[in-house]
């Protein structure tokens, strides 16, 4: 999507679009024109990179900002251990807020009481909430950015973590390696299973094995597959915990990873960078540091009225190759 297309839809010049989007001059156009430009941006799916924009700003603005200006962050009440949203991301968000010269409100899993005066300039919400509850957050905080696996109809900015991207990329990668007997392991009643049924073609759909989200669940699942002689050539796990447990069980059954079985994870669960585990797992997921920067930059842009209409940013999925995948021994 180009600035020229946005300009044509909004009925303004390309230079005006550039100045409004890049915040070079907030008085370069009337509020009506700015609204038209952002409406065109939204309808055409153009998403400016707020982190890149932030690098162009004057350092004086940051140095003169008062630390008494506070930004809150919170975890969804529907937070689930093992999902893409974990406490490491909350820590990264806190660091980004502080590095942007704002103070941080203590995380809160619930809305403030009705009589409490909300002094925070905005809120970064990690996780998925019902539409009604997001609307309540917007009413209280005014400026809200959600980091979620689901879209929302509410007028807030969104960093969308589309699980279908990571799942599809993992599946395609294994197919390129020649794997055809690919199993999927994860919660049966959740986003992972729904995404699996939506993304994997019906004619190539492999077996889905329901299991819990812990390391012990992964060990139990892989052990049962080995005992039943139903060992796949590749296993896609919903999170790192399942993957680590599965690798341990496969090794106990004298199956080598990745020579005999390739194992990948979609992230979440165990923090592989800190866990003292004798296993390594290839992960298809999102860069948490990048997500945190994007969310905080979007919120600060909204606080300073650099954009008014809701913006959705979809970061790319990354592969962290830790050697748990190899070419299939036989291409069926």
Automatic annotation (TrEMBL):
A matching Pfam family: LacI
Signal peptide residues on this chain, from the entry's feature table: none
SUPFAM superfamilies: lambda repressor-like DNA-binding domains (SSF47413), Periplasmic binding protein-like I (SSF53822)
InterPro entries registered for this protein in UniProt: HTH_LacI, LacI/GalR-like_sensor, Lambda_DNA-bd_dom_sf, Peripla_BP_I
GO molecular function: DNA-binding transcription factor activity; transcription cis-regulatory region binding
Domain of life: Bacteria
Key words of the record: DNA-binding, Transcription, Transcription regulation
Ranges for domain HTH lacI-type: 1-57
Protein name in the entry: LacI family DNA-binding transcriptional regulator
Species of the source: Anaerofilum hominis
